[in-house]
TrEMBL record:
Residues 190-629 form the Anoctamin transmembrane domain. The chain crosses the membrane at residues 198-221, 233-253, 323-342, 354-372, 393-415, 506-532, 553-583, 595-616. This is Anoctamin-like protein. The keyword ATP-binding does not apply. It is found in: Membrane. It is a multi-pass membrane protein. Keywords: Membrane, Transmembrane, Transmembrane helix. GO terms for molecular function: chloride channel activity. It comes from the Eukaryota. The keyword Transmembrane helix applies. One of its GO terms (cellular component) is membrane. It holds the Pfam family Anoctamin.
Amino acid sequence: MNGIEEENPIVFEIAVVVPGRSLKLENEGYDCVEVLVNEFRNVGFFVDRVLGLHDEFIKLAAPLETLGVVAARLHMKKTTHIGVDLPFEWEEIEAFMRQPDGSLFSWCERFQCYRHLIHETVNKKNSDITLKFDGKEIHWEPGESLLQRLELEGIVKQVFPLHDETKRKKLLRSWALNWWDLTSQPVDEIYVYYGTKIAVYFAFLGMYTRWMIFPAAFGLILHFVDFGSLKLLVFPAFFISTVLWAVLFFQFWKRKNSALSARWHLNYSVGTSHGYKLSGREWNCLQPPVELVKGSGIDKTKEREDLQRYEWFGYLRRFRNDVFVILSIICLQLPFELAYAHLYEVIESDIVKFGLTAVYLLVIQYFTKIGGKLSIRLIKHENNDSTENQSDSLVYKVFGLYFMQSYIGVFYHALLHRNLMTLRQVLIQRLILYEVLENLLENSLPYLKYSYKKFRAVRNKKKREKGLTGKIQFATRVEKEYMKPTYSASICEELEDGLFDDFLELALQFGMIMMFACAFPLAFAFSALSNIAEMRTDALKLLVILRRPVPRAAATIGAWLNIFQFLILMSICTNSALLVWLYDQEGKWKIEPGLAAILVMEHVLLLIKFGFSRFVPEEPAWVRAKRMKNATQAQDMCSKQLLRSISGGDKAFGHYTPKKDI
């Protein structure tokens, strides 16, 4: 159409899993799987059916024209060449910007189109259609989605995205297995393949690791060089430099995030308020009651009062939930954390201390799961206006649990007992054990689950067909992907994917190295090395071990940015307390010149923290200039169009006829 050719060969991007059966059963009249396949073809899909050991896989691919028609039907907003986001129209395809790889639609946009199409398989007749499956009759009601009906009947087992082998292998070579550029990553290719939020995460991780080289080098010097009596000057200098480093990093990250959004032509109308599953029920947000919306225009005063009441009741419910979580942490978790910290201080054997820390880290995982489930129940009663806001609320609540778990024991050793050697041992054990356990859980457990699923599938195949001998292999890649685990979070898969655990790991690491920088400067070097390895292991995990994740359209790191800013403020307070402790070794707490200087320095750093947000603009000059240029062009075009409409007189407005000059 309009001379537009297919930009890429047909790539199957979605798979539907149904039970495998014999050909005799499949050829029955009105077989539900056959009807489903025909419905997929009718809505415009290319369909490929693959038979596995136990299940059948229906692979779906949508040509460009099908995606374009659906995008136009959904009124999907896309960026035009003049920088204005307009509803997509297939006939005006040349007016819209392309993706970094030259494609018309991003992975997030294609996924939304796929999601709409697979649920468009509805019964358009006025009566029920009786379908069959293994002798069982299924009644397909008018207007009902066939996919949802088959899911409820247990016939459609799963619907999941498929890897594109060509792009996946290319990313393996240029990203996961490329160890020469330690912090460089193909962010544009990651965005094209995985979507916005995963690309933003890896862009943040790469920039964070590059910026950490400076405090890591400074920390190495402090650790291996004995400054003697000058340490009372060197440690404050290190503390000031790390705070300035952190503040500058996050200001420049905002600039980079803004530049990435401009480069990828991101808008916030795609997927920001939708569920993240291809099938099943979505996580619905609590929207204003229908009565309030329908009553619009009847009584403006009453309508305003009702909406304000609904708004403030929502805020009060959220405040109630936050208070409940905080009190639960203080009353239930705090005594457990203090008991662990006291035992660690009393025990003399280093081996027993190390074992106690390992057991403690395992136990708190169960505490966190319980807290996560409780937070999910509380969030359901908040009036968050989008799924991303619900996700942010969950992040705040669960991070509160982790904050108490990770730092209360360290505060106990640092501020109460004032034992520098014990504090350093705790920090080393926490950093090493946490990083090791997290990497083991992230990479080994998914691989073990995948191996066990393959073993069980082969064993069941041999039991069912006893005559089989020799080694049974999976002949199709789609079946191997079906066996792989999903990229899911440790809590609430409806709201969060695996990025929750990755960001949580970064936030806890950042808090540990920043809040106790003066006690253990070497932690920055360890964290830099850990993050370099984390980038490659996370890439391998996504490309090799796990299924292709469902894309998310969030263009920022969301609530995690506020958490990082909070940790910077906490680091100013805790490091000031550590410097006071180093200076006042006798414990007299007198306001002498040195202590007074530390207090003044703390207040100055707090002012600098808030002042740098004004000093460093959050948006690069070229992004701001481009936005202003696009706005001017759009205004000029709208003005010309409006003038043409006015000059049309009766043709444009019917009742209006322009007056002629006499």
